[in-house]
Structure formats: C-alpha cells, structure tokens
C-alpha cells in the first residue's frame, strides 16, 4: 500500500480551511462547515487565540451533495421540472457556471422519490436525468459533470438515452420506462440522438467499479437496496443484457466491451449509458468535485484543513471525501484533521491516509441517537476541543 504523505502539523495554525462532506441523516455539508467554524470561533471569543482566518468549503464525493457543493463555491443553481423515476413530475436542481453543468442524478432519478419495493425497482427509470442533461445543453453547457449515487433505477441509463433522442422499440411500439421493460426491447433507433453530445465533454463522477452485468453487476449488487427480490434481480439483469445486445445490433460496436468495463454498473447502469452513448470519461468523484470547487486555490496558504463525514470507517478509505481532501491537502503541504459522527478507524489507519486525528461526536456523547438529534451542537463542542488541541498559541499573520 502506498502511504499518503503526512505533513508536520505546525504549532500555531491560524488560517483554517474547513472542507467536510455531509453527516448523512443529520447535517448537510454546508451546515457541518458552519458548526465547525462556530466551535472554533469560541476560542477567539474566550481569548484563547487572538484571531482565526476561517474559510468554509463544503465538499462531496460525486454523489448526493455534489450540486450543493458546487453552488456553495459559486455555481448558479438551476431548477427544472423533470420526470421522476416512476413518471411523476419532480423539481430538480443542477449547478451551472461558465459553460459547465453539474448534474446529480439522484436529484431527478433518486431513491428519495420511490418506495424501496419490487414494483418500484422494476419500473423506475432515468428519463428525468436525461432531461437535466438536455436542459443543460439547451443553455450552453459544453462540459457536463454527471454525479451518480442514490439511484432508484436499474435501467442501464435507457431512460436517460430516450430523453436525449434515442428511440427504443418494443413489441407494441415505443418501449415503456424501467429496467424490467428492457427484456421486451426489440430494436434501438439512434438516428435522433442529440448531436450536441458528440461535441460535449461528459465526466462520470463515480468510484463504483462494478461492470454492468452478472454477479458483480448493477442488478446483482445494488438491486436489493432498491427493493428488488431475487426474481426481480434476475429479470433486471436479463433486461440489461438485452439492452447491451440491442445497442450492438444498432451499430454501437463497443457496447459489450463498455458493459464489461469498470463503472458501467454505477447507478443502476447509468454509468454504462454515460460511457457508451455520451462518450463520458470516468473519474473519481471527490477529485472531480475538488477541481470544480477550486480546492487547490483555497488550500494554498492554509495552516490546517478540517474535513469530515458522518461515519469515518473503512469504507471512507475508498474514494470518500475525507481521504480525498487529505490527499489534496497533503500535496499542498497542509496537514488535515477530521470531525465525524463516529469512527471505527485506528490512529494508524487514519495517518496512513493523511489524517492526523479525528474528533467524533461519540467521543463526548456515546448515544448515537442523541448524536443524530443534536449533531450541530455536539459538532461545535468537538470542534472547540479540536481547536484547543491544535490552535492554542496561534498568532494571526
């Protein structure tokens, strides 16, 4: 394993960059940053430090919260009425600035809009995400960042493709939505696919490396969390296989190769459509977000970075926000500490990934339910403790 470079913590940092993800179930990333800042500012009020220069920069890992992070860093929010995963209209927001659109598929096609049951798992689609892409193209986007995660569907991105002009024919005419319908797919007509896609840079922000099909594919690995039972999972996988074959028959010669590639199974196979039809390039989500929000410029000159997320655990070591932030801060020579709702990691494991220390809410309140209910106040308390450990004696520049 390659160990991250851990810079030496200065004795008196005064310029602090707060760059956390959300605490899922309790606080959005913007709220986490605000509460951490409030806890640190107690030290100034109490006279423990003379002054602190605090910069709040919410972050995400490419999934839910990506649009909010972009908006917090200066992108404009764009609200659009689109088709939800089960056909009902929903209002979704994407972010736009200087020809770049940041789209979060969960905003249009996410689990929040469905019940996690067998019927929803079979019928949910991604048409609304395609409508967001089309709207962004209509309004001048030349680069689209597609963040995935929290998908309700297992339709291989077929709905997204339909919204962008691809026609799917079933035995009785135009094919209906959802992954289960793909088993009845007869033919694909690509003549109406939006030609602007060929001139648009599309980035798939995803850390999922599953292929589209088989035991490690979108249906088998993620279908159950969307409510699919064993029969539905088999049917959805069969539908995805037919989707790949139909695209190959329509002239997409690399369809099978793309289906077998890492990331094709992301977001119920939306990754496959992005890679095969939109010409997307797949990049780690947190790296994409850090680029979008200008992390390198904001970390320059900082003395300390504070990151965090709700549960800092072994899963965090694989593409999640705290490790991505720590790696980027380490490259800039700035040390990183973290806050969390809870952590299961040893100090050694944290240091291997560039995090010098972690301050979980459970260190001052063992009851998890209380931590969720009082996350903001407790976060201010642990942030004050963090500040006393790392900032006392600091002088403003």
UniProtKB/TrEMBL annotation:
Enzyme class: transferase
Record EC number: 2.7.1.31
Biological-process GO terms, alphabetical: organic acid phosphorylation
GO molecular function list: glycerate kinase activity
InterPro entries per record: Glyc_kinase_flavodox-like_fold, Glycerate_kinase, Glycerate_kinase_RE-like, Glycerate_kinase_sf
Stretches that traverse the bilayer: none
SUPFAM superfamilies: Glycerate kinase I
UniProt keyword annotation of Kinase present: yes
Alphabetic keyword roster: Kinase, Transferase
Family designation: Belongs to the glycerate kinase type-1 family.
The protein's name: Glycerate kinase
Organism (species): Occultella aeris
Record lineage: Bacteria, Bacillati, Actinomycetota, Actinomycetes, Micrococcales
């Amino acid at each position: 394993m390659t160990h991250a470079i851990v810079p030496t913590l200065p004795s008196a940092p005064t310029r602090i960059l707060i760059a956390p993800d959300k605490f899922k179930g309790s606080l959005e990333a913007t709220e986490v940053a605000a509460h951490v800042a409030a806890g640190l500012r107690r030290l100034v009020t109490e006279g423990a430090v003379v002054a602190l220069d605090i910069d709040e920069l919410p972050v995400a890992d490419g999934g839910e919260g990506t649009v909010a992070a972009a908006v917090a860093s200066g992108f404009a929010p764009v609200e659009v009425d689109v088709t939800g995963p089960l056909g009902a209209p929903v209002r979704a927001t994407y972010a736009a600035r200087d020809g770049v659109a940041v789209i979060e598929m969960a905003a249009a096609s996410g689990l929040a809009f469905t019940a996690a049951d067998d019927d929803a798992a079979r019928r949910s689609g991604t048409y609304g995400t395609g409508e967001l892409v089309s709207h962004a193209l209509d309004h001048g986007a030349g680069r689209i960042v597609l963040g995935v995660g929290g998908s309700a569907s297992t339709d291989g991105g077929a709905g997204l493709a339909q919204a962008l002009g691809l026609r799917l024919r079933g035995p009785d005419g135009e094919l209906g939505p959802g992954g289960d319908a793909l088993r009845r797919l007869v033919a694909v007509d690509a003549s109406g696919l939006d030609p602007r896609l060929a001139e648009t840079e599309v980035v798939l922000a995803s850390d999922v490396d599953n292929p589209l099909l088989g035991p490690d594919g979108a249906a088998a690995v993620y279908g159950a969390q969307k409510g699919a039972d064993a029969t539905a999972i088999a049917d959805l996988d069969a539908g995805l296989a037919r989707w790949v074959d139909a695209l190959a028959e329509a002239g997409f010669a690399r369809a099978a190769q793309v289906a077998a590639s890492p990331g094709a199974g992301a977001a119920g196979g939306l990754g496959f459509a992005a890679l095969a039809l939109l010409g997307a390039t797949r990049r780690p989500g947190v790296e994409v977000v850090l680029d979008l929000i200008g992390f390198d410029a904001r970390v320059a000159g900082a003395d300390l970075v504070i990151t965090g997320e709700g549960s800092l655990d072994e899963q965090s070591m694989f593409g999640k926000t705290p490790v991505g932030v720590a790696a980027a801060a380490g490259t800039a020579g700035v040390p990183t500490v973290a806050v969390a709702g809870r952590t299961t990691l040893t100090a050694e494991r944290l240091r291997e990934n560039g995090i010098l220390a972690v301050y979980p809410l459970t260190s001052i309140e063992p009851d998890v339910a209380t931590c969720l209910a009082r996350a903001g106040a407790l976060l201010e308390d642990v942030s004050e403790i963090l500040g006393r450990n790392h900032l006392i004696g600091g002088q403003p520049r």
